[in-house]
């Protein structure tokens, strides 16, 4: 297995968003083997490290359901007016690599590497009703129609699940999977968000959240071609992710039982 040395990495990558390259070993462990720029990883299909979080409801009428957000407004903002809408997705994103933490190269992917990145993603993508942040509201591809006030959402501890994998066009990932319990009392006040660049400045878009059962999502994915269920969700049903999916289901079931 090829391994980039710290010196090689520091010399090769001096700009752009840096990601960890990961490869599966003969023992099925995922090993961090180097770093690369995001554009290179996406162009060349290099497997890189990401994180995904499944928010699940712990009480109330939606108990046990997963929370998904509709990412279609983000796609509109990126200049994709013909994207499927709704486009249901989980929370998560790329784990940013650091040239100052190259000692992880050659090591197994661990939650210690992924935890900080997942925490950042949730701080940027999960809000609640309040004040302090203004999120754009997009009701159509034509652009924002107003803003929604929001505040930071202080969630509980993440529940680590393990690694999943996905290989698709321009997207080859090893993703550390988490679960996050959310009280039913909080569901109606939650606001998802994502950012995009317009005029050289970052803008944040509010994204609608909907509780759905796993069976509902499977049915949409299978039977409704007008709706998109993103690969962050559908990868859970791939044969290579059977172990992680089973652990996710068991973790949620045990949490619900112990928190009655």
Structural key phrases:
4-stranded antiparallel beta sheet, alpha+beta, 40% strand, 8-stranded mixed beta sheet, disordered N terminus, 7 helices, 260 residues, globular
Fold blueprint:
Blueprint: H1 6-12, E1 18-24, E2 30-37, H2 38-44, E3 48-57, E4 66-70, H3 72-77, E5 87-89, E6 91-94, H4 111-125, E7 126-138, E8 144-152, E9 159-168, E10 171-182, E11 190-198, E12 201-207, E13 209-212, H5 214-223, E14 228-229, H6 231-234, H7 242-258
Structure, explained:
This protein has helices spanning 6-12, 38-44, 72-77, 111-125, 214-223, 231-234, 242-258, and strands at residues 18-24, 30-37, 48-57, 66-70, 87-89, 91-94, 126-138, 144-152, 159-168, 171-182, 190-198, 201-207, 209-212, 228-229. The strands form three sheets. Strands 3, 4, 5, 6, 9, 10, 13 and 14 form an eight-stranded mixed β-sheet that branches. A four-stranded antiparallel β-sheet has the order 8-7-11-12. Strand 11 (190-198) and strand 12 (201-207) form a beta hairpin. The protein has seven helices and 14 strands. It is α+β, with helices and mostly antiparallel strands and 260 residues long. The model is unreliable at 1-13 (pLDDT under 50). It is globular and about 50 Å long.
